[in-house]
Design brief:
Layout lengths: L1 E3 L4 E19 L13 E2 L5 E2 L7 E21 L2 E21 L9 H4 L7 H4 L16 E23 L2 E24 L2 E27 L2 E15 L9 E4 L11 E4 L6 E14 L2
Antiparallel strand pairs: 1-2, 2-5, 3-4, 5-6, 6-7, 7-8, 8-9, 9-10, 10-13, 11-12
Length: 285
C-alpha cells in the first residue's frame, strides 16, 4: 500500500510471508546386514547416533518460513524514487533427524553388544533382533531457530522503460539489521530427551531486488509479472546449531558424569536466498 502526495513525498507499507518450504532426505541403510557399516552422526561432547538396526536409514528434514513487514518514506526524484524506512523480518528454521523405518523391536542388544560393528551384529545375538516390542521413539535430533531482524533500509525504485501500456520497473533495497536470534535443540540420548537453549544479538544484512513488467489493463488497474530475490546474511539456521550443542554422558573413564545437553551459543553465520516469480494486480486511485 503506497500513498503519493503532490509534493513528491509519500509513504509505503508492505507485508508478505513465505509459507513453509521443506525438504527431506534419507541416507542408508548402507547395504546388506553382513556387508554394511553403521551410519554415525557425531556432535560436540559425547553424543553419537547410529541406526538401531541394520535395516534402518537416517532421515533428515529441514523446514523454513519467513515473515516480513516494512514501512518506508518515499521521495520522488525524476522518474526514480528513493526509499528509506524501517523493516522487520522473522526467519524460522527447523531440522529434524530420525531413524526409518521405525524399530520393530526394542534395541536391547546395545546394552551388551555396543562395541560390535554392524557386520558382527548377527554373531552377537542368536535372535539377531533381541528385545521387547518397540515403543514410539522421539527423533534423535531436533533443532529450531528463530531470527527476529529489526533495522533500517535504503533503496531505489525506478521506472526503467515505458512503451505505451507496457512498463518495466526495478527495485533495489538494502539494510543493516539487529538480529535477535535464538536456538532450541532437543537431543535424544538413550531414548530420553534433553533440551539446550541459547539467545544472542548479532548484526545481519538484508538485500532485496525486484524486476517487474506491467501491462495497463484499464485506468488505475495493471497486471504485474516479475522476479524477486531476497537475501539474508548473518542469520541462524538449524543445521548450524549442531556444533553449538554440547552433550555429556557416563563413560568407563567417568561413570558418574550426568547425562545433559547445553547450548554453547547461537551460530549466526548462515545466509539464505529466497527467489522466485511473482504475478499480481496493481490498483491505483
Amino acid at each position: 500500500m503506497t500513498y503519493h502526495d503532490e509534493s513528491g513525498y509519500g509513504v509505503e507499507f508492505s507485508y508478505f510471508n513465505i509459507f513453509t518450504q521443506s525438504a527431506t532426505k534419507t541416507v542408508g541403510p548402507t547395504g546388506p546386514p553382513n556387508t554394511a557399516d553403521w551410519l554415525v552422526m557425531y556432535a560436540p561432547g559425547s553424543f553419537w547416533q547410529t541406526q538401531d538396526f541394520p535395516y534402518q536409514g537416517m532421515a533428515w528434514k529441514d523446514a523454513t518460513n519467513l515473515y516480513s513487514a516494512e514501512a518506508n518514506a518515499r521521495l520522488d526524484l525524476s522518474p526514480r524514487v528513493t526509499v528509506l524506512g524501517l523493516r522487520w523480518l522473522q526467519l524460522n528454521d527447523e531440522l529434524v533427524g530420525w531413524l526409518t523405518p521405525a524399530d520393530r523391536n526394542s534395541p536391547d542388544w546395545k546394552k551388551y553388544c555396543y562395541l560390535n560393528t554392524l557386520n558382527n551384529l548377527p554373531s552377537c545375538s542368536p535372535l539377531y533382533y533381541p528385545g521387547g516390542t518397540a515403543g514410539i521413539y522421539p527423533p534423535f535430533w531436533q533443532a529450531n531457530t528463530k531470527n527476529n531482524l529489526y533495522g533500517a533500509q535504503i533503496g531505489v525504485d525506478a521506472k526503467l522503460l515505458e512503451l505505451g501500456r507496457f512498463s518495466i520497473d526495478g527495485v533495489i533495497k538494502a539494510g543493516v539489521f539487529d538480529n535477535n536470534a535464538e536456538q532450541t535443540t532437543v537431543v535424544s540420548m538413550a531414548k530420553q530427551l534433553y533440551t539446550a537453549q541459547a539467545t544472542t544479538n548479532a548484526a545481519a544484512f538484508v538485500g532485496e531486488a525486484d524486476l517487474q513488467v506491467k501491462y495497463q489493463l484499464a485506468k488505475g488497474l495493471a497486471l504485474k509479472v516479475g522476479y524477486e530475490a531476497l537475501w539474508l546474511d548473518g542469520v541462524a539456521l538449524a543445521p548450524g546449531q549442531i556444533r553449538e550443542t554440547y552433550t555429556t554422558s557416563p563413560s568407563p573413564a567417568s561413570p558418574l558424569t550426568p547425562v545433559s545437553a547445553r547450548a554453547l551459543g547461537v551460530n549466526c553465520s548462515s545466509n539464505v536466498l529466497f527467489q522466485g516469480a511473482t504475478v499480481g494486480l496493481e490498483s491505483s486511485f
